[in-house]
Fold this sequence. Notes:
The chain is of the alpha/beta class and 262 residues long. The protein has helices at 16-29, 44-47, 60-64, 70-73, 90-97, 107-112, 132-140, 154-172, 191-204, 217-221, 237-255, and strands at 3-7, 34-38, 83-85, 121-125, 143-149, 177-186, 208-214.
Amino acid sequence: xxxxxxxxxxxxxxxxxxxxxxxxxxxxxxxxxxxxxxxxxxxxxxxxxxxxxxxxxxxxxxxxxxxxxxxxxxxxxxxxxxxxxxxxxxxxxxxxxxxxxxxxxxxxxxxxxxxxxxxxxxxxxxxxxxxxxxxxxxxxxxxxxxxxxxxxxxxxxxxxxxxxxxxxxxxxxxxxxxxxxxxxxxxxxxxxxxxxxxxxxxxxxxxxxxxxxxxxxxxxxxxxxxxxxxxxxxxxxxxxxxxxxxxxxxxxxxxxxxxxxx
Length: 262
Ligand code: ADP
Ligand code: MG
């Protein structure tokens, strides 16, 4: 059975989309079957996968609101060698329309049911807010991967985020677990980042990935070429870090150490 991992943090600009695109490509490079779902109306993960969001014939809107079968919505020719469900501004309308439909929290979960066995990993790139789309992601996921920057107040924000995830999980998905906390845009020369990183490890222990994603300009440049970093500059520190993260996720999966959030 494949694993569904939601990449979430209410804060914008923490590296959710960069993580989603690059971890999906890294997993696909290890010969796993991977689906990436872009749930953010900004469509950055879509563009970063080499798919023009303005041209996408179907998006999460068709999947969630029109209930089109998932096989008709999936786009299979992406630069990252994974399958994609696209997003664009239409997904904003989906967020609003979800309020009016039956079983609105479990639309995504139900939509994924036919392909859960087909894919080894399904990653969901969440929008930077706690809206109905994020609720759908939490209801559909087996676990949540939380990217964060080691900044002042980061720990406070993370504790609040974990509480929110816990509350949400207790309502829509009691089986939900924390996949891991990922330090992104890390600069080891920054003393504050090192301090926050230490506090984070003390507080969240094994939940913090050993792999750290460095601040690396290649990761920021690759999306403008519509590709994950490993197909833009495979020797960059950024693309190597995401390959290492994929390895760590696979090893953790084998250890099978689950920590329920609720
Ligand atoms: P989110 O999806 O959480 O809003 P993004 O992944 O879009 O965050 O990242 C925000 C910005 O930071 C983007 O411009 C992205 O290219 C850049 N970025 C993300 N991770 C890194 C990194 N490790 N090094 C350098 N730039 C990064
Ligand atoms: Mg994003």
